[in-house]
Write a structure and sequence with these properties.
Number of helices: 8
Distance between the termini: 54 Å
Strand order of the largest sheet: 4-7-2-1-9-12
Structural class: alpha+beta
Strand content: 25-35%
Number of strands: 13
Number of domains: 2
Largest sheet: 6 strands, mixed
Low-confidence stretches: 1-20, 108-117
Order of helices and strands: HHHHHHHHEEEEEEEEEEEEE
Shape: globular
Helix content: 25-40%
CATH class of the largest domain: Mainly Beta
Mean pLDDT: 83
CATH architecture of the largest domain: Sandwich
Length: about 325
């Protein structure tokens, strides 16, 4: 249903395009997303500046450059704000509900090689939307009012080749007065059972409310500091998530929406379940191909591999491994 405040130029375009062109119908049915978006904008006869204006009236801010990249296929919407923009575009461009979102969810541009077991684009955007809802339930802003100065993670792979546990040590700095908690997020491997996961507050914090979403494997947990930080204060805390509820694990990925401080990831393996090879990788976005591949040697006595990023960039970084 059209928005009550839509502009006259959209209404006129709707009258001129009461029946969508065949090419638009075809693009909406088969995609890909950027082709369908470009066809829809062209069918409505709206320049990108007008599309941006209509989005702002829906309370969504997206730059003209981003819109241009989306319709060229150079980038794809990923963050919650971007996904809200896609839903608003369906209304602005008079498209069937979920038509553009469906194309995003169904497309997966990564090659399906034998050792490529990364999460699908569909899984990542569904988890992103779920996480937004869980944070809203907890009354937590996306950034939490904290800057990350350092984040060290240790992932333990168990005897069944499963992701058994993840431990995190954070060094943060308060952006404003009054921050007294952090919301930890854990995204388990496909097939995991968040209801059976346990959050352990290990140092300088205690566990508060915990929210779980079974279908996407997302868990969000409050870690309460027991003190209110002032703007500029630093704080150190440590926690762990006991998992072990999914099947064979093949990678661990850390995503960041904005640049941060130092990040270190260590993956250790059970003595009876050692991979045949490991490598690190980076990824600009969930839709982008992986790059920055570098083989990692498994150290003998510690049975572990690691990576260190002096300054974490937005996007994804992770370690993947192959079993025999």
């Amino acid at each position: 249903m059209p928005h009550a405040t839509q502009h006259a130029d959209v209404a006129r375009a709707e009258q001129d395009c009461a029946v969508a062109p065949a090419e638009l119908d075809s693009a909406l049915r088969g995609g890909p997303f950027h082709v369908a978006l470009r066809a829809a904008i062209a069918a409505r006869g709206l320049p990108l500046q007008r599309v941006q204006h209509h989005l702002s009236r829906h309370g969504v801010r997206v730059g003209v450059t981003s819109l241009s990249y989306w319709q060229q296929g150079a980038r794809r919407p990923q963050r919650p704000e971007s996904l809200r923009a896609v839903r608003a575009l369906e209304e602005i461009l008079q498209l069937p509900e979920e038509s553009l979102i469906r194309l995003l969810a169904e497309s997966d541009e990564r090659p399906a090689g034998r050792h490529c077991a990364g999460r699908s684009y569909r899984a990542l955007i569904e988890a992103s939307g779920v996480l937004e809802g869980l944070l809203a339930e907890l009354g937590a802003p996306r950034d939490g009012g904290l800057d990350t100065l350092g984040h060290h993670e240790r992932v333990r792979i168990g005897a069944r080749r499963e992701l058994a546990e993840r431990e995190s040590h954070h060094i943060v700095r308060a952006q404003r007065d009054g921050v007294d908690r952090y919301v930890a997020v854990h995204h388990g491997d496909p097939g995991c059972v968040p209801q059976r996961m346990t959050v352990h507050a290990l140092e300088n914090c205690r566990t508060g409310r915990v929210r779980r979403h079974h279908d996407t494997g997302v868990l969000a947990a409050e870690l309460l500091f027991g003190t209110r930080l002032r703007a500029g204060d630093t704080f150190l805390f440590r926690y762990a998530v006991e998992d072990g509820t999914a099947g064979v694990s093949r990678e661990y990925v850390r995503g960041a929406e904005s640049p941060g401080g130092q990040y270190a990831l260590q993956v250790s393996f059970d003595a009876g379940a050692l991979p045949v090879r490991c490598h690190r990788f980076t990824q600009h976005s969930a839709a982008a191909p992986r790059g920055g591949r570098q083989d990692l040697a498994l150290s003998g006595p510690h049975r572990s591999v690691h990576l260190v990023e002096p300054r974490l960039r937005s996007g994804y970084v992770g370690i993947a491994w192959d079993w025999d």
